[in-house]
Amino acid sequence: MSTVNKVIFAIFDGLGDRPIKELGYKTPLEAATTPNFDRLASKSICGLSNALGRGIRPGSDVSHLAIFGYPMDKYYTGRGPIEVAGLGIKLREGDVAFRGNFGTVDDDWNIIDRRAGRIRVVDEFAAAIDGMNIDGVEIIVKPGTAHRAGVVFRGKGLSANITDADPHEEGRPVMEVKPKDDSKEAEFTATVINKFMRKSYEILNSLELNKNRKKKGAFPANFLLLRGAGMYPTMPSFEEKYGLKACCIAGGGLYKGIGAFLGMDLIHVDGATALPDSNVRHKFVAAKEALGEYDFVFTHIKATDSLAEDGNFEGKKEFIEKCDMAAKEFFELPDNVLLVITADHSTACEFKAHSADPVPIMFFSPHVRVDNVKEFNEREFVYGGLGRMVGSDIMPEVLNIMGRLHLIGA
What we know:
Blueprint: E1 6-12, H1 28-31, H2 35-41, E2 44-50, H3 60-67, H4 72-75, H5 79-85, E3 96-105, E4 111-113, H6 123-129, E5 132-134, E6 137-143, E7 148-154, H7 184-205, H8 208-215, E8 223-230, H9 238-242, E9 246-249, H10 253-261, E10 265-266, H11 280-290, E11 296-301, H12 303-309, H13 313-326, E12 337-342, E13 346-348, E14 353-355, E15 359-364, E16 387-390, H14 391-401
Parallel strand pairs: 1-11, 1-12, 2-16, 9-10, 9-11
Antiparallel strand pairs: 2-15, 3-4, 3-7, 3-8, 5-6, 6-7, 12-15, 13-14
Helix pairs in contact: 3-14, 5-10, 11-13, 12-13
């Protein structure tokens, strides 16, 4: 008898949504033509999930940690350490890490665009401000995907207990970083960061590359917006926790960071951009190939989220259809492979942000009790055999299907 000992775990970021008038009051997932996802769903056990629980509007970082069994109250210190882990920066004890956006501000530091017009490459901007030393603190800046960057402040006497500089809204001014407590470490860290922001703005604003962007009518990348301060926590790796050798396939820095944060090996895939042009099929092919060496393959798909954050419901629908074409790669998986397809959260096109609405989740394997669901979308999965789950239910269910759960009681 064949048993399950391999897992492909695919997370479609922000997949869930709300009904949209222009789509006939369907969600982009409901409106999309998805024969391949439907075929997989018809041979799966399905349901809905809220990563952090009902009525909680989650971020991508804490959603992924919850799904993989790392509760935020124990392991989450801020998004920064996760972001920089995905960029290959090795944190040291005492480092304070941030995630950052290269954005556009005016002369008074009012934010014009938080993503500098969704700039695609920021390597030159990151290099221009990398390696500063302010009051004995070394500052490391590395480019991430598109407008993103990872930033590390390295030195003695630092604290992550400080406020964000990024107000998360355009039209508002950059915020002065302040300590959240009365410690000298938090006060010192805030002072260093505020000095860094002033100095980096002067450098970025004077770059010839930014002057050329202005001449062409493009947003200059003249400010690095910092948020998500954190220090690396002591935690078990995914393999130590579950006994499964794991890898991560992702295009976005945060999601590579989640994989690296949990001790997963990062698998590079050509064409994996984390953007709508990402080669999803290559990711799925790579996921199958990785099963030769790994027990658990985390595969992340980003653009469903970013398109919804732009309010682009047609683009989200079309990208879902692109993913559906790639899903043919999951037909005829060996009987020992469990395929999990879900999302970290819903992203609602109507208000261009994450929502607390539940997302689809399905377990595809000949070893599950297949239910009567025939279509892959939020509304149909209400009737699935899994019912309503939360993030902390998911890995135990994976282990259950694999026959790895410990017996409770006699």
